[in-house]
Design goal:
The chain is built from 11 helices and 25 strands. By secondary structure, it is of the alpha/beta class. The protein has 3 domains: 202 residues, 3-Layer(bba) Sandwich (FAD/NAD(P)-binding domain); 136 residues, FAD/NAD(P)-binding domain (3-Layer(bba) Sandwich), CATH 3.50.50; 60 residues, no CATH class. Strand 16 and strand 17 form a beta hairpin. The structure holds flavin-adenine dinucleotide (FAD).
């Protein structure tokens, strides 16, 4: 991919430092923003470069809406605008952007290759995010759709529409089945929105709603594994009431182009298969093997939070193995990535000024899980749980809070408001 420096980089003079941030997702953009601000505050001569293969920052939490929108109501352009924020608009003063694929990292030489160009650095922050984990299941990668990017989301939406359109012409077809493999956060949110889409497509193609089945297959004994059981039961009850089928303690052992085979040996035909069963760290192109866990997340040195063996390289978010207070890796979420980025920005600035870096303190965050329409579950670390419309409103405020960190407040309000309008239009 061609590399283009879109913003003029500032040259480091004298004994300044050069910091490269690989990946401009939740962790990367937060780190860039705070590093630029702290460099100004400490009057540090720092060149900060954020590199990403895309020229926009993707707001994943709204990707389900793109995957389940209906073209009659919302244009693709409007949808893209609602979740893709161009770096040219959100990059902080004092940081530069470089578009390109990071293809090689040499800790020994302190260099990275971005597109064709080789750049040296003093500090490197890795925030490449994650990729879908197919868990070694035969046939899954070839036949299942996933939800990790705008093209993925549009593929799901188009394939769902095509499946209903085709079924409406096939008078012999008894049932159209959409399977979502994995009943974690992604599977549950997607299922909720997919129920909307099914309703709309059934109306649009005059195809009986009762002939469309949405089936969630989850390997553990509850939806949203890891969440308190009562939340899982509420969500399960809501999805069932809205017409979803749910199979717990069943996992997909194999898939081909029209069926999945469960661990029980049962074969289930499908028209559309979406895999939301897990993620693993994106491949990080080090020129030598680095210590990582089984999900590919880089191991951090406990004392300084840098990647083991390199006290000038840091990993954030989905790329980092960060143990919580019970020594269990923290979940791969945007809130965790932002929290770690806040710490790392301060750590880099302290290292650069030869100051001591305080230890990282893991923190638990709450969750807001929307499940179709203006309904969500809000669960706080204190154990407090709310269901319903107010939790959905809280989610819209969380969106606004995030946008307002990146955009001028007025624009952030317009963006959050515009999204809400757009997505609500899509709700039947
Ligand atoms: C559909 C969906 C919904 C989600 N909803 C929520 C939610 O509601 N709340 C929540 O807390 N979390 C949510 N998450 C999880 C959350 O999005 C991730 O945990 C978070 O994005 C991780 O942040 P990150 O900075 O590690 O990586 P990302 O935000 O994924 O950013 C990685 C960046 O690196 C770039 N990149 C990758 N490889 C390269 C390379 N080789 N060269 C150059 N650039 C590269 C990518 O283009 C991307 O911009 C959701 C995830 C998905 C998929």
């Amino acid at each position: 991919m061609e590399t283009q420096i879109q913003v003029q980089t500032q040259k480091v003079r004298g004994n300044g430092i050069k910091i490269i941030i690989g990946g401009g997702g939740f962790g990367g953009i937060t780190c860039a923003r705070l590093l630029a601000r702290k460099a100004r505050k400490y009057k540090l001569n720092a060149e900060i470069i954020l590199a990403d293969r895309n020229n926009y920052h993707l707001y994943y939490p709204n990707l389900y809406e793109v995957a389940t929108s209906e073209e009659e109501f919302v244009s693709i352009g409007a949808l893209k605008k609602s979740i893709a924020l161009p770096y040219a608009e959100i990059l902080p003063k004092g940081a530069a952007f470089m578009q390109g694929e990071i293809s090689e990292i040499s800790p020994e030489n302190k260099t990275v290759k971005i597109g064709g160009a080789q750049l040296n650095f003093d500090y490197l922050v890795l925030a490449f995010g994650s990729v879908t984990d197919y868990c070694g299941i035969k046939g899954l990668q070839e036949h299942a759709l996933v939800l990790k990017s705008i093209p993925d989301a549009l593929r799901i939406r188009n394939r769902a529409e095509f499946a209903v359109q085709a079924a409406s012409q096939d008078f012999k077809k008894k049932l159209l089945r959409i399977i979502i493999g994995g009943g974690g956060f992604s599977g549950v949110e997607l299922a909720g929105e997919m129920l909307n889409l099914i309703q709309i497509l059934s109306w649009k193609y005059n195809y009986p709603r009762e002939k469309i089945e949405l089936l969630i297959i989850e390997g553990s004994n509850q939806l949203l594994p890891g969440m308190p059981l009562h939340i899982s039961e509420w969500v399960c009850g809501r999805l069932k009431k809205l017409g979803a089928q749910i199979r717990l303690e069943n996992f997909v052992a194999e898939a081909d182009r029209s069926s999945v085979f469960l661990n029980t040996g049962e074969k289930i035909n499908y028209d559309l298969l979406v895999w939301t069963g897990g993620v693993r760290s994106a491949d990080i192109p080090f020129d030598k093997a680095m210590p990582s866990d089984k999900k590919g997340r880089l191991l951090e040195s406990a004392a300084s939070f840098c990647v083991q063996g390199c006290d000038f390289i840091f990993a954030i978010g989905d790329d980092a193995h960060v143990p919580d207070l019970h020594n269990v890796p923290v979940p791969q979420t945007a809130t965790q990535a932002i929290y770690e980025a806040e710490y790392i920005a301060e750590a880099v600035m302290r290292k650069a000024r030869a100051k001591q870096v305080p230890p990282f303190r893991p923190r638990a965050f709450g969750y807001i899980i929307p499940v179709k329409g203006k309904w969500a579950v809000l669960h706080l670390p204190s154990g407090l749980t709310w269901y319903g419309f107010l939790s959905w409103v809280a989610r819209r405020f969380a969106d606004l809070r995030y946008f307002s960190k990146l955009l001028p407040f007025g624009k952030a309000v317009r963006m959050a408001w515009f999204d809400t309008e757009l997505y609500v239009k899509n709700d039947e």
